[in-house]
TrEMBL record:
Annotated organism of origin: Paenibacillus beijingensis
Residues binding ATP, per UniProt: G30, P31, N32, A33, Q34, G35, K36, T37
Recorded GO CC terms: cytoplasm
Swiss-Prot/TrEMBL keywords: ATP-binding, Cytoplasm, DNA damage, DNA repair, DNA replication, DNA-binding, Nucleotide-binding, SOS response
InterPro entries: DNA-binding_RecF (IPR001238), DNA-binding_RecF_CS (IPR018078), P-loop_NTPase (IPR027417), RecF/RecN/SMC_N (IPR003395), RecF_2 (IPR042174)
Protein function: The RecF protein is involved in DNA metabolism; it is required for DNA replication and normal SOS inducibility. RecF binds preferentially to single-stranded, linear DNA. It also seems to bind ATP.
Name listed for the protein in its UniProt record: DNA replication and repair protein RecF
GO biological process assignments: DNA replication; DNA synthesis involved in DNA repair; double-strand break repair; SOS response
Domain RecF/RecN/SMC N-terminal: 2-350
Chief site of localization: cytoplasm
Record's keyword annotation contains Isomerase: no
């Protein structure tokens, strides 16, 4: 897929921007705090209706304005699509080809993006919560039903935790807990199964991309670390029973601690380079390359799922890669994936390798070619 044009109205520091993005590689250059990330963020928001930097939509609206709008024209396999998002104090509205979508889930996935930014290092170095968010965003982008199941799971989890916290063990109502257990297990196994499948595929692509970027010097393995082991090839009913047994085993502990001890909200994933845990033993460069391999693997996973390549957004990351890794990155996707890159200067980018590139200068919320 290809983003042909984007316009912004009162989006962060862009009062009004109309930009045609008809090149395979679009490079945005400028000093700090001029609006480069804001522009990539706007493309990300047009795909997922929310920012990668903030959960507060209000922050996307220009400080002096009541509302913000993003308009884009994307070329897809089956033709052109126009996308509109409007953010105001009342919430957000989404339109595809001028038609308002009753549910945002009908809009998400029309445009697909993969963003790689400096903070993605946290996928490797950060807490399990960061890794779960990464998984959920990625699976959610290609399997719309997933986010709905996740929401249901979290609703039950909150109710169950409140009950565990407030009820004295002697006064427990076994029936009530049983109902929540069943709902938790029903949604929980669906999420775990999807995560397990996703990580298996992610592992295959990430390992081969990582080997390419490091000229075969590093072998990356990615593993799912659920709160209890499952065999994802089993029927959901078998996994449901396993989940229920697990809940009964940790019951006493749950009452003591007042919280749910097993389930996808306690999942994690692990990364090993040449058999050693990347989080503990990896150098900064190895950790960054691991995060990059995961993101690039996602590009292939999205293509497998939807039949075309997503856009790639690289925010301020090229300067952190040595020339060899930059070249590998560019050559892997050159000609196949439309790419948007930000950098503070051209010297940090191996421009000679780029084909069909447009170079834009960003200054104070304005973009010039
Ligand atoms: N809601 C908003 N309304 C107006 N301006 C905003 C809003 N949110 C952020 N800004 C401004 O946007 C600018 C930051 O832009 P951005 O994050 O895109 O910088 P950048 O060009 O990517 O810089 P760097 O190279 O440092 O990453 C800041 O000057 C900030 O004050």
């Amino acid at each position: 897929m290809f983003l042909k044009a984007i316009s912004l109205t009162n989006y962060r520091n862009y009062e009004r921007l109309e930009l045609s993005t008809d090149k395979r590689v679009n490079l945005f250059i400028g000093p700090n705090a001029q609006g480069k990330t804001n522009l990539l963020e706007a493309i990300f928001v047009l795909a997922l209706t929310k920012s990668h930097r903030t959960s507060k939509d209000k922050e996307l609206i220009g400080w002096q304005a009541p509302e913000a709008a993003i308009h884009g024209v994307a070329e897809k396999r089956y033709g052109d699509v126009t996308l509109d998002l409007l953010f105001s104090g009342q919430g957000k509205k989404a339109k595809i080809n001028g038609l308002e979508q009753r549910k945002l889930s009908g809009f998400i996935g029309t445009l697909n993006v993969v963003m790689f930014a400096p903070e993605d290092l946290e996928i490797v170095k950060g807490t399990p919560g960061v890794r779960r968010r990464f998984l959920d965003m990625e699976i959610g982008q290609v399997q719309p039903g997933y986010l709905h199941t996740l929401q249901q799971y979290h609703k039950v989890l909150v109710q169950r935790n409140n009950y565990l916290k407030s009820a004295p063990p002697s006064g427990l109502q076994a029936d009530l807990l049983e109902v929540w257990n069943m709902q938790l297990a029903e949604h929980g196994v669906k999420i775990m199964k999807k995560r397990k499948h996703f990580i298996q595929k992610l592992q295959t692509w990430a390992a081969s991309i990582h080997a390419g970027i490091t000229a075969g010097g590093e072998e990356l393995t990615v593993e799912y670390r659920p709160s209890f082991e499952i065999d994802a090839s089993e029927e959901e009913s078998v996994l449901f029973d396993q989940f229920m047994i697990k809940l009964s085993q940790v019951k006493d502990q749950e009452f003591r601690r007042g919280m749910t001890m097993v389930g996808p909200h306690r999942d994690d994933m692990s990364f090993h380079i040449n058999g050693k845990e990347a989080h503990v033993f990896g150098s900064q460069g190895q950790q960054r390359t691991t995060a990059l391999s995961l993101k690039l693997a996602e590009i292939e996973l999205i293509r497998e799922e939807i039949g075309e390549y997503p856009l790639l957004l690289l925010d301020d990351v090229l300067s952190e890669l040595d020339q060899y890794r930059q070249t590998q990155l560019i050559e892997t996707f050159q000609g196949k994936v439309q790419t948007f890159i930000t950098a503070t200067g051209l010297e940090s980018v191996n421009v000679s390798r780029l084909e069909d590139a447009g170079i834009y200068h960003v200054s104070g919320g304005r973009v010039s070619e």
